[in-house]
Design a protein that fits this description.
By secondary structure, this protein is mostly beta strands. It contains seven helices and 58 strands. The longest helix is centred in the middle third of the chain and has 8 residues. The two termini are 29 Å apart. InterPro entries: Choice_anch_I (IPR055188), Mesenchyme-surface_protein (IPR052956), Phytase-like_dom (IPR027372), Quino_amine_DH_bsu (IPR011044), TAT_signal (IPR006311), WD40/YVTN_repeat-like_dom_sf (IPR015943). This is Esterase-like activity of phytase family protein. It comes from Myceligenerans pegani. Pfam families: choice_anch_I, Phytase-like.
């Protein structure tokens, strides 16, 4: 056997990791310090190992529960109907969450007395408060009452709305207050004496500006202009409450001097988006997203005290092209921040979520000095990098606002002031310590379901409640309310991975500069992370007992193989190297669903299982250690002809005295085997003779209409035993089968042309482990291998966020000798 390790020959082709992960996501020991003892990496590598991940357990936020809100809809509502949770608030005791469901024209109620087990309390249909077409846009709780902001507009040109006051206990309407326009958000002063409502009177994106009938659709101005309503809440009896408007334009419709002087986009047509009250309860900050501005209003007097522009931001080190690649080297010219949500960090500092709308968006969030309007700090490209580092890069948004930061909330929990920043398109919330408002410190990233809209800190109980608005029963993506707790012990059960369970290190030679610092213009350069997504295969490294290999499937181009350092100190697994697959020296595009790292004694490199769009395009592909394709082996014609669109889903290999053999799992049955379903096939390929032998694997029966069951992976346990992943196509609460079975190979091969049926035995029910993340149960359990350290590892395919939450779950399932007996 050769004593030269394959890794030393792969080095030149790697984009290897640096010594640290940006943003403090994972603190890594430099390679020079890590190279000792049994974990010493092969010569020539800059691999690093994780030392700690994020905050200590007692200070971390743990995901406690994910509640699909369709389960809280009225009994007569079809579970497949769209039902969402957007903006939420909580009762003063922190136990009852109230959320808006614009799709269902209702507001919902959840009991979070036990935050690990939210309980639906039903909903209130707005038809009972007014009209069946009324739409709730925001909600706030004051004492014993729920204030529901309702859009009643018949058209963009004739906007209207009201504030419904609902008794929290009885869910009956106490009174309504006319708002004089189409409302968006509402905020309550800390003492409960005032409510401030942003009256947006939003533009129609399908018509041109009023003064340019031949112009672009959606341009401003479009009358009527928006304004702000301040609702006085004296005492506890809503009968004495009243509203007073704060105009943001002159009586003749022209721009107020304060707005015109601030250099806003179209000051004669302000559209208030979001409102926040400072801790002192004296000043309301209102974001004018389309106008790229912020207005400060004295709550007591209703006077506009200050107006300033949110300014522009240029970005480097970001992905700007929708091409299925993850290329963090692009540049964006300066664009308006166009803030959506806004929050006060303290009485001197404002934070904005810079989502953008029609001309801008800078993929991050900013801190402003409220007195001067100057930028005190800006996240630059770091949230884009964070998304790439944890596998949540959304390539479908790279040409349009990227991670799309929409939500922000600030609150003190457990003695620390935090900012919670939500990414609408990459499905995460980033947590920052903002004890020093001029220098926010990244703390942690939290995975959510799709489209996190409402961020609700519950400081009296050390909780964060996130409402996600995306809902599609057809795609298995449902709107949900996710509850996180700071330091809650119930979330730290043994073996439960905390998100992220796999991250990437830095990609050598790539960097991106972003704006940071006290004065808002100090340039800080950090290395960009290795971009990854859609991991659908796993293989143990034949030489390094703590290294695995995985691969991206067709969701990413070019095809990449990734080196993974397995976790050892409770942190995540780390992708510390990337190998791009090439064909004739050019980047290749394969749909890799299976992967086996070959031992050095047979030449090293890899065998890949590439699933084709048709049966004939399925192939085994041999790749050198440098990533170059050296051989392609098609499936036998009779097999390929019966595949349909479900093909190769796993590859594993063995080398013994008889030579090199590959085992190939086909996801579902052949059409020639009495149709898809019934049994799937596992093939053995003799590399030396190019002969195939076929075995049959009986599949479990689907448990729901429209479901199917198939194989997702195969790995070798010993010379006589294989392990496979068998799973259904369901996710979330519907998921029923995510399991590892073992099969013993027969002592004699079947005759040529025959299929030998295999007896299977359940080895690992993985579904409880997936549910133990307390998130959305993932559909695609697709990677499985036995590491050189004797542990069994598995990984889910996140589908590159396409009709999926995007979360990747990497699992250490335990020791082989205990699982495969």
């Amino acid at each position: 056997m050769s004593t030269q390790k394959p890794h030393s020959r792969r080095t030149a082709a790697f984009i290897a990791s640096g010594a640290t992960l940006a943003l403090g996501l994972t603190a890594l020991v430099p390679a020079s310090a890590a190279a000792h003892g049994p974990d010493r990496p092969s010569a020539g590598h800059s691999f690093s190992r994780p030392a700690t991940f994020g905050p200590s357990q007692g200070k971390a936020f743990h995901r406690l529960a994910t509640y699909p809100v369709f389960q809280n809809a009225p009994a007569d509502v079809d579970p497949a109907d769209e039902t969402v949770a957007e903006i939420s608030d909580v009762s003063e005791d922190g136990r009852t969450v109230v959320y808006t469901d614009a799709a269902g024209r209702r507001i919902g109620f959840l009991d979070i007395t036990d935050p690990a087990h939210p309980r639906g309390l039903g909903s209130l249909d707005l038809a009972e408060l007014g009209d069946a077409e009324d739409e709730p846009t925001s909600v706030a709780v004051v004492g014993d009452h729920v204030l529901v902001v309702v859009n009643t507009s018949e058209s963009y040109a004739n906007p209207s709305g009201r504030l419904d006051v609902v008794d929290l206990a009885t869910r009956t309407k106490v009174r309504s207050i006319d708002l004089g326009g189409q409302p968006d958000s509402i905020a309550i002063t800390p003492d409960g004496a005032y409510a401030v409502v942003a009256i947006e009177n939003e533009r129609d994106e399908d018509v041109p500006a009023d003064n340019a009938p031949g112009g672009d659709e959606g341009d401003l101005p479009q009358a009527p202009a928006g304004f702000v309503q301040i609702v006085d809440l004296p005492g506890t009896d809503p009968a004495g409450w009243s509203a007073r408007p704060v105009p943001l334009t002159a009586t003749d419709g022209s721009a107020l001097p304060a707005l015109a002087g601030a250099g806003l986009d179209t000051p004669e047509d302000p559209e208030p988006e979001y409102v926040a009250i400072n801790p002192a309860g004296t000043t309301a900050a209102v974001s004018l997203q389309e106008n790229n501005g912020i207005v400060l209003i004295d709550v007591a007097s209703g006077e506009v005290t200050s107006v300033f522009s949110a300014g522009e931001q240029a970005l480097t080190g970001v992905d700007t092209i929708e091409d299925d690649a993850i290329d963090l080297t692009g540049t964006l010219d300066a664009a308006p921040r166009e803030p959506d949500a806004i929050a006060w960090i303290d009485d001197q500092h404002l934070a904005t979520a810079n989502e953008g709308d029609w001309k801008g968006g800078t993929r991050g969030w900013s801190v402003f000095d409220a007195a001067t309007g100057e930028v005190a700090w800006d996240a630059g490209n770091t949230l884009e990098h964070l998304a790439a580092r944890v596998g949540l890069h959304n390539d479908g948004r790279t040409e349009n606002k990227g991670v799309e930061i929409e939500g922000i909330a600030v609150s003190e929990l457990g003695g620390t002031r935090y900012a919670f920043v939500g990414s609408e398109r990459s499905n995460f919330v980033a947590v920052y310590d903002v004890s020093d408002a001029d220098a926010p410190q990244f703390v942690q990233v939290l995975a959510t379901t799709n489209g996190p809209e409402g961020l609700l800190p519950v400081p009296q109980r050390n909780l964060l409640v996130v409402s996600s608005e995306e809902d599609s029963a057809e795609d298995g993506v449902r709107s949900a309310v996710t509850v996180f707790g700071k330091g809650w012990r119930s979330a730290r059960s043994a073996g439960t991975p905390r998100f992220p369970s796999i991250v990437s290190g830095d990609a050598a030679g790539t960097a991106g500069a972003y704006t940071s610092g006290l004065d808002g213009d100090r340039q800080v350069t950090r290395d960009a992370p290795i971009g990854w997504t859609a991991l659908g295969a796993l293989s143990a490294d034949p030489e390094d007992r703590r290294r695995l290999w995985t691969a991206s499937d067709a969701a990413k181009e070019p095809t990449s193989l990734y080196s993974v350092r397995t976790p050892r100190w409770g942190g995540p697994a780390v992708i510390d190297g990337e190998l791009v697959v090439t064909d004739g020296g050019e980047p290749a595009a394969l749909d890799v669903e299976g992967l086996w790292a070959r031992p050095a004694r047979v030449g090293g490199g890899f065998w890949l299982g590439s699933e084709g769009r048709t049966g004939a395009e399925n192939a085994l592909v041999r790749v050198s250690e440098s990533g170059e394709i050296e051989e392609s082996v098609s499936l036998p014609e009779e097999i390929a002809a019966g595949l349909g669109k479900w093909g190769i889903e796993g590859v594993a290999g063995t080398v013994d005295r008889r030579g090199e053999h590959l085992f190939v799992a086909l996801q579902r049955g052949l059409t020639s085997d009495d149709g898809p379903g019934g049994y799937a096939r596992i093939g053995r390929y003799d590399v030396a003779t190019a002969e195939w032998t076929w075995f049959g694997y009986e599949l479990e029966r689907p448990t729901a209409d429209g479901d199917w069951v198939g194989l997702s992976e195969v790995t070798v346990v010993d010379r006589n035993t294989l392990a496979v992943i068998e799973r259904d196509k369901l996710n979330g609460p519907d998921a029923a089968l995510k399991a590892v079975y073992t099969v013993d190979l027969p002592h004699r091969d079947p005759r040529p042309g025959e299929v030998a049926m295999l007896d299977k035995e359940l080895a690992i029910d993985v579904l409880p482990r997936l549910r133990a993340t307390n998130g959305w149960t993932q559909e695609k359990l697709e990677g499985l291998t036995i590491g050189g350290d004797g542990h069994v590892y598995a990984v889910t395919d996140n589908d590159a966020l396409d009709d999926a939450t995007g979360e990747t779950v990497f699992l250490d399932l335990g020791k082989t000798r205990r699982l495969f007996r």
